[in-house]
Every structure is written in C-alpha cells, then in structure tokens.
Amino acid sequence: MKKSSLFFVLLCLFQISKLGFCLAGSVHTANNNGDKRHGFIRVTNFGAVGDGKTDDTQAFLKAWEAVCNGGSNNTTLLVPLGKIFMLKPLKFAGPCKSSSVTFLVRGNLVAPGYTWDMGNSPAWISFDRINGLVVIGGGVKGGGTLDSRGSVWWGSGHAQDRPTAMHFNNCNGLRIYNLQHLNSPRNHISLSGSKNISVSGLKLTAPGDSPNTDGIDISNCIGVDIRDSVISTGDDCIAINTGSSYINITGLFCGPGHGISVGSLGKAGAFATVEEVRVKNCTLTNTTNGVRIKTYQNGLGYARKISFEDIKMVDSQNPIIIEQNYINRGKIEEVGFEYSNYQNRGSKNRFYKTESGNGRGVKVSDVRYSRIYGTSASDDAVTFNCNADLGCDNIVMDHVNIVSAKAGQVVSASCNNVHGSYLNSPVSCIKK
C-alpha cells in the first residue's frame, strides 16, 4: 500500500474514533442536562455502584444531602433502573429547603443479608422531619422493589429485636406510590407523627408464617388515605394505633395475614385514642382475622366512629371481632387473636372472666358494619367480647351476611356486654 493511501486510512479511522468519542460525550452531556432539566440527582453520580454487593449507603446519603439542600433546582433523588443497590441502615433527615422532595426508586434496593445492632438502627430506611416527601416506585416490571431480607431476623433468637423496614416520622404531606416491598424483618411500613398522608399502588409481601410482619402500621397520624394496594404478610395488613384519626382505607386486597386492625390500644394501662376510621371496598382472603378492634382491659381512652363497609371475606377465620379484654400472652407486640382472652373451644364461644369494678378500659363505641359478606373458615362469624363495666355502645350491623366456607355447616355470633342494633343481618347476636 502506498504511503498516501495508508495516511488516508489512518486519517479516516482517527476521525471515526473522534466522532464516536464526541457522540459518547454528547450522550453523557445529554443525560446530565436531562437530569438537571428535570431536577434529578442520580445516586450513581455520588459513587453508588449498584451491583447488589457493594455498600452504597454513603453514596445515597450524599445524594440525599444534595437533594435536601438543593432548594428548588434539584428536588428528586433518582435510583436508576437496571441496578441493585445494597444499603445498610440509614436515615434521610430533614427539614429540606424545598417544599417538596421526591425519592424515585426505579432500580432495586436490598438490605444486608445479616442482622445488625438495633440500638442505633430501629429501622432499615427511615425518613424524618421531611414535609412534602414523595416516594415513588419504579412502575415497571422488575424495578422499584425493596427487599428487606427479613428471613435472617425471623428466628426465635431475634424475636425482640427486629427492625421496621421503612419508617416515616413527622413527614406531613407524605405521598407513597407504586412501591413493591418484600420480606420485612418486622412491619414493612410505619407511619408516625404525621398529617395528610396518601398511599396507593403498594404491594407488600412476606410469608404467611413470618412473625409480626405487618404491612402498614399507623400511629399518631391525622388524615391518612390508603388505596388500591395488595398486602400479603404474616400479621396485620394494616394496624391503626393510638393517636390516629381520619383514616380511610379503600380498595385493599389483604391476605394472608391477620386482617385489618384497630389497635391494640391501651397497652400497660396507657391512654389511647382512635377515631374517624373508614374501611371500604376491601377483600380479605384466608386471613386469621377479618376486621378487628382490640383493646387491653386495663387501658384508658376510646375507639369510636369507625365503619367497615362493603367488605368481602374469603375463608377468614374470625371475620368480625371486637376484643375489649385483649391480653398479650407471651408474644412480642402484635399477636394473633388466638392469644387474646377469648378462645374458641369446640363449636362454642367462651370468654374468660375479666376484672371488673376497676374503672379502667378503652371505650369502644359508634362502630358500624355495613354490607359485610363472604365466607368464614371457622364457626365464629361474629365475636363481640366487651368489658363488663364499659361495654361496647352503638354497635350497628347493617346487611351482614357471612356463611360457612364448609358445606353444610352454619356459623354463629357471640355477644358479651354489647349494645346496638342490627338490620337485615342473618348472623347477629345484638339485641334490638
């Protein structure tokens, strides 16, 4: 080949290489410009690797600091699609400069595959004092999933010290959408000390025998709206605890698990209050309990103005329960109904004799059950076990029709110290 031809070929190769470099640079610049235009801050820009093994905790905290302190220009922390980020326990703290910040999870997050000291880390991922926080899952198949690897915690040796997976505290105006969450060590999501919360499109999953793996626990919150979600765990799908009011739950598919619970309230003699709760258009399948209110017998306070409407039961063990004399028998925090002071022996309901005359108890009143239907896996479709001194007042059953899941069997209802009324409810023990 002549020298002139060789020079021409080399010149062409150089130009092609230069073009490729420029194109790559242009794509990188375009991505950065796109991030800036949309207010994104990528965790990978702060050193996050996303191989599922490397500890990316510090990179996430640095990215969060940039988002939280970025004012109105950069308000979204982006977890990019196609990567798995391993995170040790961490806290995203506010207050932030912007009135709203977003945690956008398109990739996947996993917890360490080992237990840790609970002293300084009661939750795997916590958000504290962040108003206007928006947490959004990926919304695409295979992305936006959190795996808490709770199985390493579920052994008996860790019964008392297991972390919540995600804890939101003092986060007014919180929004959580389209999040998938697997295998929490304990409850999947805790909401506390906050107002005006909206939750929808969640899928929370853990084995039915995993201990205390509640879906969502609510405490000291005002104005919580939970919609169109699927919760399949080893304990309560949703537990509404003290200090909570104006709670709306709509379109929930629950099961397996322990159903939807108000309480437990009044533990260790505490003053507890829950009011203005509405549960509507929900389906509970193969749950240990259905819709339940449970209060400790020596507590104080009230649970009132609660309604359960348009609820479908599919083989629930105890579809409708008020247990006003609840006792925790050797279990940690949340326990199944079988550990209360009510027990089913054979086909008849029996109640333990409870302490009376002590002037204590959590008052239960103004509870309405409307259009509750489906099947019960046990003989006990309705159980109202109320305190001899306080009783349960203004309990209304309106079109409650639950039948046995077993062919040829019938279901029954049991009432103890309950006052109210019923309308078109074949299974009821309330006296008009």
Automatic annotation (TrEMBL):
Signal peptide: 1-24
SUPFAM superfamilies: Pectin lyase-like
Main location: secreted
Keyword S-adenosyl-L-methionine set for record: no
A family per Pfam: Glyco_hydro_28
Keyword Oxidoreductase tagged: no
GO biological process: carbohydrate metabolic process; cell wall organization
Alphabetically ordered keywords of this record: Cell wall, Cell wall biogenesis/degradation, Glycosidase, Hydrolase, Secreted, Signal
GO molecular function: polygalacturonase activity
Active site, renumbered: 258
Location relative to the cell: Secreted, Cell wall
Similarity field: Belongs to the glycosyl hydrolase 28 family.
Protein name: Polygalacturonase
